[in-house]
Amino acid sequence: MMPTADTAVILCGGESRRAGLDKQLLPCEGTTLPRAIARRLEALFREIIIVTHTPHIYADASFTVVEDIVKGAGPLGGIFTGLRHCTSHYSYVIAGDMPETNLAYIEWMRRTMLRESLESGDVDAVAARQGVDHLEPFNSFFSVRCAPVIEASLARGEGSIGRFLKRCDHALLVQEEVARFFSPDWSMFRSVNTRADVDEFLRRGYAFAP
Fold it and tell me: Has residue 177 been placed in a domain?
């Protein structure tokens, strides 16, 4: 069977403490940042899922909005929730506070992943490597097969996405030089975390990389 990768999951469950405001309400492209990301991703994905602890913010949205299955489990818990609700074999995962959406890189990852999956049948995740040790947790793909493994990790109190990826036997790692071909300054992996980041975002915004 041909694997499918028609779902994008946007994680919007953070507390936003360092930013000093609810980042889900940051203005972007005539709407809010998560909605702008969702609108961009509709160019590539049939199904858009937002995981949030405040679903009322998206009451009028056309995409699927869900709450965390495992409360307080952090981003890995959000990925688990997305995988439990998705209808595809693979889901693209991004945080709702990442302003740049590089569709060319996402499509390259998807094509590479599906080709490798057909040839070997055992790709469970795709993530970029930076330097020797760091794996980017977002702007990545996860297989629905990861859901029970993530659930077991959460039950053990292990909530690190990076640690999960490093332990994943069938992760396809994108080398840094390949990722930098699409984003030389690594901006497609940056997020709005602190108040200074918020001020910079509001001052100049981020370019949408088609």
Answer: yes
